[in-house]
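Reopening this one. Same input as before:
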Amino acid sequence: MKHLAFAAVVVSWFIAAPARAHKPSDAHLRLAVDGTTITGRLDIAVRDLDGALGLDGDGNGQITWAELGASGPRIAAYLEHRVVLGADGAACRQQLGAAALAELSDGAYWAVPVSATCPHAPASIDITYSLLFDIDSLHRGLAHVAGQTVILRDARTVRVTLDEATSFTSFVKEGVWHIWMGIDHILFLLCLILPAVFQRRTQRWSAADSLRDVCKEVFEIVTAFTLAHSITLVISAIGLVTLPSRFVETAIALSVVAAALNNILRTVDARWAVAFALGLLHGFGFSSVLVDLGLPSHELIGALLGFNLGVELGQAAIVLALLPVLFWIRRTIAYQALLWAGSGTVALIATLWSYQRWFV
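Same output, byte for byte:
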């Protein structure tokens, strides 16, 4: 019974996952410095404020301007204690202005002017940001300061040195983070490499004898997936081709369905071709992360290279962790259950994701 309960929890978590698959909870803090004065704007999603403060007074699932206006003092109190600015280690006198609604790519945002007067002209800005982390561990603050972007993932104070470029390593970390948090990417990759240790011999399937042959096939699969998503990541991030988010997210879920069903039906043995064809869709999903960062054009090349490197490192870590285990259990009932029942379960869950992403 304990195993069934655990399985139920895992399945329910997977079912709930699509809402956060590619578009994390973001807030944007845009700052500029002029002498001793810091000015800017904080944009935070209305849906996130509702989750933190319960703005939907009548509980009808829709937040009206009247409800936002009535909650204005609560919102201001919540924000001023969770976004604090300083200069070179010294405190600045901070003030929030009159808020308004702003429409961004993923919905309505509460846009609040921010200003701070510092004791001297800063060489660096200290940002202490603690919005929403207590209710959403995957939330991130995107601080855009004097031409650079800093990703804030916890409440520790971050010092941003002015007139510096965005750290290349920050984009690498973001790529690793995205692949590890993207459960649909992980399941897609797992479905592609799962049959590699159970190969066709003439007209029958049997456990692979050579780890070297398995590694060669997995290398071909991962290389094809990398090449495909790199192509669409670049052309989407630079604006050559853009697709609606709902279409991309639904298509990615359907790609997981296709990869899982191919494990059961064995329609296409050349899984590198499946990886390439469906990997093109995943590149559009990856690009949405960079687009959401709102990067200046001079940072785009570095961001693309760093983020893509992070994605490759993240998926390489997954493959290196899973492949020896799969090879070790390839002759067992556990592997057969994972291959057939596991692929069937993934296909069902990803089908539900497809429905949710398109219709909900």
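So the earlier flakiness isn't reproducible anymore. For the record, Residues 1-16, 18-22 have pLDDT under 50 and may be disordered.
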